[in-house]
Design a protein that fits this description.
Elements lengths: L6 H15 L7 E2 L1 H8 L3 H6 L7 E3 L2 E5 H12 L2
Antiparallel strand pairs: 1-3, 2-3
């Protein structure tokens, strides 16, 4: 079976597949900027506390599970 797609359709398909692949049982995966936005802190703070936040190195990049961010916030709130 041969399927013809335009470049735009292929981009949309790849974006959808990547978005779904980044979701795991732990929720979405965040980059440093996303983690900083969730915690309302600077990216420098995220880099300094990446181990404490459960950061995982993927190549040169650090990624975080959203669920780890939620756990960190709850631990800081005393909940």
């Amino acid at each position: 079976m041969i399927v013809s797609l335009t470049v735009g359709q292929l981009r949309e398909l790849i974006a959808e597949i990547v978005k779904e692949a980044l979701k795991t049982n732990d929720g979405e995966i965040l980059d440093v900027e996303g983690a900083a936005a969730v915690l309302n802190v600077s990216t420098d703070w995220i880099y300094r506390h990446s181990k404490q936040l459960g950061g995982r190195k993927i190549g040169k990049a650090i990624r975080f599970y959203r669920s780890d961010m939620d756990k960190f916030m709850k631990s800081r709130q005393g909940i």
